[in-house]
């Protein structure tokens, strides 16, 4: 059994409880404005574009494309020392939002990545409370 995760964790907020409950079930959900029809991330109870509070949740497809990436060679905190090198990335989700994440399922080398490549969500259970959505090549 792997030792318990000791790295940094997202801090759950009332506005994001639904999101984290869904990631535990390996589902990616986004907020969507019912007025301007834009989906957005991170979860907030108002639309960041028009300010409206007429918003809902949508079950995202989990599909996206690589917008940009960087390969982290030096651990930003000691607890991630055995994780480097790893890939941080921004993924353009099919529903519109640009999503900060990690790319997994490939060695962390530039030749394994290309801007625009197709990706799909996968999930990493860090703790009992936090399951992170990550992306891997299709
Ligand atoms: Zn809006």
Break the fold down into its secondary structure elements and pairings:
Blueprint: H1 17-24, E1 29-33, E2 39-40, E3 55-59, E4 63-72, E5 86-93, E6 98-103, E7 118-125, E8 131-137
Antiparallel strand pairs: 1-2, 1-3, 4-5, 4-7, 5-6, 7-8
Bound molecules: zinc ion (ZN).
Residues 33, 35-36, 38, 47, 49-50, 52 line the site of zinc ion.
Overview of this protein structure:
This protein is mainly β. It has one domain (14-137). It has one helix and eight strands; from the N terminus they run αββββββββ. The protein has one helix at 17-24; strands spanning 29-33, 39-40, 55-59, 63-72, 86-93, 98-103, 118-125, 131-137. Strands 6-5-4-7-8 form a five-stranded antiparallel sheet. A three-stranded antiparallel sheet has the order 2-1-3, with helices on one face. The protein is globular. The two termini are 29 Å apart. The relative contact order is 0.21. The model has no long low-confidence stretch (mean pLDDT 96).
